[in-house]
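W.,

You were right to be curious about this one. When I first looked at the sequence I had no strong expectations either way, so I just let the prediction run and decided to look at it fresh. Below is the sequence, 254 residues in total, followed by the output.
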Amino acid sequence: MTPHLRSDVLTAPHGFFTRAGGVSEGPYASLNCSLSSADAREAVLENRSRAAQAVGARLPQLVGLIQVHGRDAIRVTEAWHPGEGPSGDAMVTDRPGMALGIVTADCAPVLFADEEAGIIGAAHAGWRGAVAGVLEATLEAMMALGASIGHVRSAVGPCIGRASYEVGAEVRDAVLHATPDGSVFMAEGRRSGHWQFDLGGYCVWRLRRAGVGETGRIDTDTVAEQERFFSHRRRVLAGGGPIGHQISIIALPA
């Protein structure tokens, strides 16, 4: 089975996948699941199929979005062809058999489930999306389908860690403008005028503040673990070049 991480908080079929266990080669080795990369499409589709199967789903029912670092949450009523999804950064569904996939390479993948209501969700939370309220928008979309906020369980997957995430005044000011109490997730940086941002902790805090029944976090730094994760920040620090993305999936059993 394709290697993946699971959260103790979620009992719905799900997985936070690493870069291992796929068929892609070179800088995309090996479980690159991004259809917007220059990787061979047939390799990416095989990788996505392996990830879907690992959580008991099938590739035709695995959907993703054109992620844009916003807050729009899309209601999924039927599957679309791989790579042809709408723009947005979150999805929700109540349709049995569907699987929701988020691709990341340092941003936080967040998975949601209200199993009593039979409703799941998935969100892509970079700093822009988290500040804009993509997590709350996902919860609102789930509640519009009939979920109860107190019954929702959520899990924040592997993302860039505080030690690796140096940000400037733009990010700090945006975080504090939206959430003044969020200052606890900003530590003094190594350079003057910079801070170390705990993105994963910030996401967990916003979820708890929103009232979810339970939330958890897989506290792993994608930048620091080159063998396990793709990382945009690591790629930038190395001078650029091609990059793959890992996928996180949650499924609603048929």
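Here's what jumped out at me. The radius of gyration is 17 Å. And, maybe more interesting for your project: The domain at 4-251 is CATH 3.60.140.10 (CNF1/YfiH-like putative cysteine hydrolases).

Coffee later to discuss?

I.
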